[in-house]
Amino acid sequence: MKVLAAMSGGVDSAVAAARAAEAGHDVTGIHLALSRNPKSYRTGARGCCTIEDSNDARRAADVIGIPFYVWDLSDRFHEDVVEDFLSEYAGGRTPNPCLRCNEKIKFAAVLERGLALGFDAVVTGHYAQLRTGADGLIEMHRAVDAGKDQSYVLGVLTQDQLAHSLFPLGDTAKPEIRAEAERRGLQVADKPDSHDICFISDGDTGGWLGEKLGESAPNTSGPIVDSESGEVLGEHEGSWRFTVGQRKGLRIGTPAADGKPRFVLDIEPVSGTVTVGPREALAVTGLTCIRPLWCGTAPDAPLECTVQLRAHGEEHRAVVVPSTDGFDVTLRDAASGIAPGQACVIYDGTRVVGSGTIAATER
Predict the structure, then answer these.
(1) Domain span holding position 243
(2) Which among 20, 98, 176, 347 has most CB atoms closer than 10 A?
């Protein structure tokens, strides 16, 4: 096949491109320039999309022996990922920008352009596995390396996108990938993995939101209210500074009656009210999800399954009931600190069934 290898400049995407070439595919490497003002160097493991990353990707392509190009998708990334991130926080929700980037950029914008240029598929360094099911549909399964599994952030992919995707690393543990990179002579073999949010390179999400939203946010101040007594405990400078489950940074002067810490339970962006309470009040047993995306055929009856509610979160036993515009989830075991805006990814064993965006929670 004629494939595009999305090369971030890291070890995973470099080895994925090398494996695709070794398998006999006609591979062209591309680096996605997603930042309008890329820095020259990354800071440790924070961020990505720097000029350094682009150069690392180019050197890896040279070692593999494949053509290499840089695609500037910074405007679309800003509109579909950064602006979405800002609007979600301003609306009191907690988005996952990596999931949105996969949905809108890597497997929409890139795949659309690639197919138009005559390519058959996109290969990435994501840790997930693809199989053909008994019904002929493409199934996505968890990676062998549970600690690196990225099926959660790929849960937004459609059947058509899965049919044009390759994930060569899903059957291998990460230490083996680094060892393979070294054997192949790839200089990125020991390069630290990137983490946190790529467009917030210093890791200070609150500070970045304050700089970007500032006075334009719906509420620059509001009350912090105790869930049990209704007492106003203090004032904040923007509801977008908080997320459900947050403990640090509340700056509440009045201690709880039992002396235990309080956590953010709810964010109401219209009034600017942030409600706090005890840890046990974070437990939720039900979810309402919107924007459903199914990896195959949507279920037409209640589904006994498991769900994952965070990128690195545990699985929860659940029953999913499809609705006309989404699905409802009853959790067999309560989950803690779940925020609207996060993704709910549905699994049948290791297979991804589909996903949705959490719109509301039920305690």
Answers:
(1) 218-277
(2) 20
